[in-house]
Amino acid sequence: MLDQIKGLHHVTSMADDAHTNNHFFTNMLGLRRVKKTVNFDSPDVYHLYYGDEIGTPGTVMTYFPFPQMPRGRAGTGEVGTTVFSVPEGSLGFWQNRLVRLAVGGLKETEVFGEKRLNFAGPDGDGLALVEVKDDPRKPWTEGGVSEDHAIRGFHSVAMRLRDEGGTAELLKFMGFEELDRKDGVTRLIMPGGNGASLVDLETLPNISRAAQGAGSVHHVAFAVDNREKQLEVRKALMDTGYHVTPVIDRDYFWAIYFRTPGGVLFEIATNEPGFDRDEDVAHLGEALKVPQQHRHLRPILESNLQKLET
C-alpha cells in the first residue's frame, strides 16, 4: 500500500461558456480565481482555476470552457458529484444565497450523517456543500462570502460505477481506507490527509455509461508532496499493471495520468511549485498566463479568448 498520497489535489471539469463559469465560481460561490491560463492541448480554450487564496491542493476546482460544447450525459464511469466543505450551521445561508441567485437543482439531503445541500452548476454540474465541524483550512473571504460561511475546500468526490470492486481495490492500494457503507455507497478516507480526504463510490449496475460534455468531470487529481514521491507512486502503479503516462509539466504542478478500472481518469499531481510561481499572491489569476510552447500564440489568444471580469 502506498503512503505518498495526501488526499485530493484538484478536480477538472468541462464547461460551455468561460464568462458564465468564471462568474459562477467567483461571484456566486465566492472562490478565488487563482489562475487564468490555457489548455495545454487546445490553447484556444481557457484553463481556469478556482480555490482558496493561493490555490492550496485540496481546494482547487478547474475548468476547460469549450465554447458551444454540448452538455454531458450523466452515467457510470465518472465523478458524479464534487462536494465542498462549509462550516457547521452554514447551509441555511447557502440555501438562501443560491435561491436568491437562481441556482438550480437545490436539494437538502443527509449522507453518512452529514447535512448536505446539492445544487447544479451552470452546465448541470453535480455539486454539493457539506457542513464540516472545525475544518481548519482558511477560506478565501474576498469573494463576497464571510468566513463564517465560506467554502474551505473539497470535502469529497462521489464516483458513479457499475462495479466498485476494482476502483475500491485501487484506492486502498493508494492509501485510502474503507470508512463506511450505506445505501449502495462505499466511503473511503485518506487517514491523516489534507482535509480533502474522502471518496464515495456509488454502485449503479443498471445505469448506462456517461458521455462527457459540458458539466462533466474530466479527471480527478490526487496530491503528493513532490516529484520524488510522484515517481514512487508512478513506479508502484506500473508495477501493479496500470498504464501510466510519463510525468508532464503543467507549470504549477507535475502530473501523471491513468485510467481506473471503473473508467474514471485519475491524475497524481505534485503540491509543488504552486500557483505563485509566475504571479504575486496578491494578483493571482489576473493576467493571462500562456505555457512556454504556446507563447508565440499570445497575440492571437488575447484577441480571441473571451474577456473575463477580474
UniProtKB/TrEMBL annotation:
Organism, scientific name: Sinorhizobium numidicum
Top-level taxon in the UniProt lineage: Bacteria
Pfam families the UniProt entry points to: Glyoxalase
InterPro entries for the chain: Extradiol_RC_dioxygenase (IPR052537), Glyas_Bleomycin-R_OHBP_Dase (IPR029068), Glyas_Fos-R_dOase_dom (IPR004360), VOC_core (IPR037523)
UniProt-recorded name of the protein: VOC family protein
Coiled-coil zones: none
VOC domain span: 7-132, 153-271
